[in-house]
Amino acid sequence: MKNSGKSLLSLGLATVVLFSSCSNDKSAGDGKLSNEKDSVSYALGMWAGSIMKKSGLAELNEELYLNAVKENLAGTETKMKQEDASAYLQTYFGKLEQKKGEGNLAEGRKFLEANKTKAGIVTTASGLQYEVISEGKGVNPKAESTVTVNYKGTLIDGTVFDSSYERGQPATFPLNQVIRGWTEGIPLMKVGAKYKFYIPSELGYGPSAQGKIKANSVLIFEVELLEVAK
Fold it and tell me: What would the pLDDT profile of 187-214 be if each residue is shown by its tens digit?
């Protein structure tokens, strides 16, 4: 998955930078930040720890971890070949991402099951859900039309992952080049309308993570249809 490689790279960089900055200098042994070297070392430690925690590595065998770093820095023989270690971590992080994705999928389905019972929610045959905030009076776009919209995208926990309102500029795009939930949903609208869409992961990005959007996430969009070009 796309983010697994990034996590591995970030973790590797953090580890290398952190431990290559260490030395036998005892000046930081009292825990105080007495000079620039101390501050940089501590800041790198915070950075590495944060990345490791986000990657699901809050708990490690510290002795083996430190030995591996020291062996690499010293150029001595290691218990794994570099390519084997990389392959092992790639597989491990892939399993972590898959587990997170399965959790997101179950949570999303639970959310949509509860949401479809609410007043004003319409569910289509594909599983797309929407509610009409205000109707328009213009034309309906087709699935291949180019449209201009204002929108805000959130996750079910309220996290905003994208917003044309925040950018201060509407977005224009062909409907046949966006996620399936938009290709199906926006043609239901007339120009001037504002709808709220609840998009199952299979009509969104599916198992692919996209920035703040985790694998198998339900996407919620408030969309205003401003113009249909063709």
Answer: 999 999 999 999 999 999 988 888 889 8
38, 65, 121, 179: the active-site residue:
179
Q: Which of 42, 65, 92, 161 is catalytic?
A: 161
Residue-wise pLDDT for 43-80, tens only, equals 887 887 777 777 667 677 778 877 887 888 788 888 88
Is pTM, for the whole model, over 0.85?
Answer: no
Examine the residue annotation and report whether 162 is marked as an active-site residue of this protein: yes
Q: Is 25 a catalytic residue?
A: no
* Active-site residue flag, 221: yes
Q: Which is catalytic among the residues 93, 195, 197, 221?
A: 221
Paired tokens of 133: 């905030």
111 a catalytic residue = no
Q: Which of 93, 130, 151, 197 is catalytic?
A: 151
